[in-house]
Amino acid sequence: MVTMPGLLCALLLAFPAQTASGQDAPAPLNPRERAVHLLNRLGFGPAPGDVERLLEMGEQAWLDEQLRPAPAQDPRLAAALAGFETLELSPAGASQWVYQDYVGRGKKEEDLSDEERQQLRERRRQPGRELIQSVLYRAVLSDRRAEEVLTDFWRNHFNVSFTKGDAIEVQINDYERMVLRRNVFGKFEDMLRASARHAAMLNYLDNAVSRRPPTKQELAEIERNVKRRTGSEARASEEVQIAAERGLNENYARELLELHTLGVDNGYEQEDVVALAEALTGWTYDAGRRASQEFTFRADMHVESDKRVLGKTFSEDKEGGPGQGEAILQHLAGHKNTARFIATKLTRYLVNDEAPPAAVDAAAKAFLKSGGDLTATVRAIVASEEFWSRRNFEAKFKTPYEFVVSALRATGAEISDAQALTWTLQSMNQPVYFCDDPTGWYDTAEAWLDPGVLALRWQFAMDLSEGRLRGVKIPREFWNAVPDDAPPETWQHHLSLLLLPEGAGERTRAALASVTADYLAKKKVPDLRELGPQLVGLLLGSPEFQKQ
Amino acid sequence: MSDLHHLDRRDFLKWSAAAAAAGLALPRARLFGAQEPAAGGGPALVVIFLRGGADALHMLLPWKNEEFLAGRPTLRLGEAEGVLPLDGTFALHPALAPLKPAWDAKLLAPIVCAGSPHPTRSHFDAQDWMEYAAPGDRSVRQGWINRFLAASAPSGASEFRALGMQDLLPRSLRGAYKVLAVPTNLDRKRGDQTLDRFEDFYGDGSGMMEGGEDMQGRREDDDTGVVESGRMTIETLRRFQEIVGDAAGGPGAGQEGGARPDPRDRRRARDERETAAASPNDYPDSQFGRRLAILSKVIRADAGLEVAGLDYGGWDDHTNAGGADGKMAARMRELAQSLHAFVTELGPRMASTTVLLVSEFGRTAHENGNNGTDHGHGGVMWLIGGGVKGGQVHGKWEGLAPKALYQGRDLPVSTDFRDVYASVLAHSFGFEPGKDFFPGHKVAKLKLF
What we know:
The structure holds two protein chains of two kinds. Chain A folds into four domains: 4-52 and 397-546, no CATH class; 67-185, no CATH class; 216-245; 336-392, no CATH class. Helices cover 54% and strands 3% of the residues of chain A. Chain A has 26 helices and six strands. Chain A has helices spanning 4-13, 31-43, 50-57, 59-66, 75-81, 91-99, 114-141, 145-157, 172-180, 188-197, 199-204, 216-230, 233-245, 251-260, 270-279, 323-333, 336-350, 357-369, 374-383, 400-410, 419-427, 445-448, 453-465, 491-499, 506-522, 528-540; strands at residues 283-285, 295-297, 307-309, 312-314, 414-415, 472-473. Chain A has a two-stranded antiparallel sheet. Chain A has a two-stranded antiparallel ribbon with strand order 3-4. The longest helix of chain B is centred in the first third of the chain and has 30 residues, at 2-31. The two termini of chain B are 31 Å apart. In chain B, the strands form two sheets. Chain B has an eight-stranded mixed sheet with strand order 7-6-8-1-9-10-5-11, with helices on both faces. Classes of the chains: A mainly alpha, B alpha/beta. At the A-B interface, helix 1, helix 13, helix 14, helix 21 and helix 22 of A face helix 4, strand 7, helix 6, helix 7 and helix 8 of B.
């Protein structure tokens, strides 16, 4: 049982002005609360039975099982993903799947009939649609809970987006698998390097087209060629002028420093951005619908010189390869500012919008000591006192993604088609892999808790509980939580235990009781199939369920 | 095309004289303590943020400037492409043609070389700081409009003074003063029912002991602000639905039910310019157009709305910005067409309405290597309204010679964006910002109105 004085103290602590000296420390979380907290922060919330299973298994065993790479075992997940064709494809494979294995075989795009064109358009969308749905299926169904939560963190940290259009349609499926999931329990440096070399990132932040300006000889050659081809001097000189302007693109270099490694204004200047952009010229990929889409270093696009980045000189790769950029990435990955930045972001994500400094310190230390080992970093946060502190219990406002996923988990929802969920997240402004800004989606209340946003959550809660979401339904077993002989006045209690295992507040209980009373006043023979969905919708829309 | 413009111009001229006169009168009434909106509605301010760092020199082109011509071989435009000369120096991009009538009617005023003096070239910092109006100061987390609302709140003011015309508030509207973000896809039929259902959980209803705790010792405090946010959602959204009524379910009406668009369709539609309006005075069939249409309805309903904020994103054109018909042109066309429809529909109400367009920074004066531009410094801010000293380009312009540029590459900032904000607030609401309203900044008076 929760002890009253303990909770009171916890609340007083949240208001320092009211804290008298000599107060007892807030009561630690009880075992059930600890289980709920762990599932909330590293599992998108409990599904029916999860809390009991975790209690039986023990926290350490659960963490040991979760914080390591392993394939997902849930048969429902396997079944859900079975029909997808593009999840395992490389960018080249996906490109082939879209453009060569189906319509347009041998035809030029302009020769396609309207119907074929429509088919092609659908075909082009298919990889993205499958990816986004698979992300949702995994988040809801996978038994690899921590992998899903942490992958979501890195998906936003190293954001790429379908809003870039065209070529990226075939690149992100591979990115999710080979850059994010493969390294989520590995080294930060490996994930950073994998992202820097991947077609999706090279394309999304324009590094693929960043190059040194052409030399005089190259310009002369262009002039000769255009003149020969068109016979026009004016045209040739125009082309030369255009070519002369081609060159450096700072986009990726800036975000690499600002968002991926050091953090904004955290020890670099504009000169560092330019030098890094120059060092990364030539980092591109073999682009085109029939090309390999593999990383390639183009020496002819590279700015050949020693570069000074963060006060350190990186000499040119003597082999004429990408070694200079590699060395800078390595330096950035192990930089103490990077450690601090990643530690702060992860702590904010896992503990509190105001990242507790002691947990950040512990995480940054673990990051540096382990050579950027991401599992060690997460473990340091979970092992910190702050992670378990009562003031951080239910202290995070769920993002739309966390809200939707946790609602589906809490109700044990069966999903036969995730398209409706994709739309839901789109209408809540957090569609997966559609964040145009390289920041990725934020995870703080400040970004999501505007008056107005709850209306859409309530609508979703009612739609889910009353069976109005196409392809999604709450299974019959869910209602078994309410014993057959339970009086209708207690239904809310049984359903609460599943959806708000940490307990409902007084206002919520009173509101549910009043809904129950209204219903009973109208119905002589109460039916769980009528009142139950109402109560579930209200519980999912309650203030308590918006927090984790 | 020219025929249509003649029509537009006539419409504008018809009421522009009245607009000019009334534009002076209304704010003054406000200044002298009139709390109730004057007949015909109180002043309204609409702030539109162009996210991504809009390329000022591709909207307002110094089209004959030699450095401009030399530095922008693929982006420069001239008479052949249909630029619209405004004065001896600047021309509007042809895609902004729908704004030309407002210029001719002296309602439109660009301010060149305006922006933030802070050197950051980070979108996210620059946007934050422009919306919090506190460059370089990460401790300020209340938007500048929110600060105005809080500082000027008359007692018993309606919660309808301000709206974010999109699902999430622009940061300028975020803060202690609670403002509604209007959900785009709320099902209209069931929306009201949903609000009723959740009233007991969030509303001002009984069953709650103020600051008390329940039997389990669980305190009903609201340190995350969820309950307060819910209460505000119910009350203000109801009011909003009443006003907008049958016209639409929300700023994205027409999207609920049936087949919903893939976000890529929206983008494609925008890029392919399928959003063209049916007639020159109509709103384009786009989310932005629909939002402005609804906003116009709210303003015309005289419901006490003072400020509305909304975003138009996607201006980060590092590659292939395009010339007269490129992807940036498509965006500008939709923006200009939406604004034209808004201004036309408001008609005489433009006398007391001001529209302000801002972006976090301009871009490099020269093209980059990929027919686009990189993050720059100074940009252009735009004002539209009856009280605006329109038909002239404001701000200090010293050309594009290397010496005139910021760090040799970007437009400089000679007009601080905070001075523009202050000027707008003074004009629309007679509001004089206190000493700390813009932390560390002393407001310089501008003659924009």
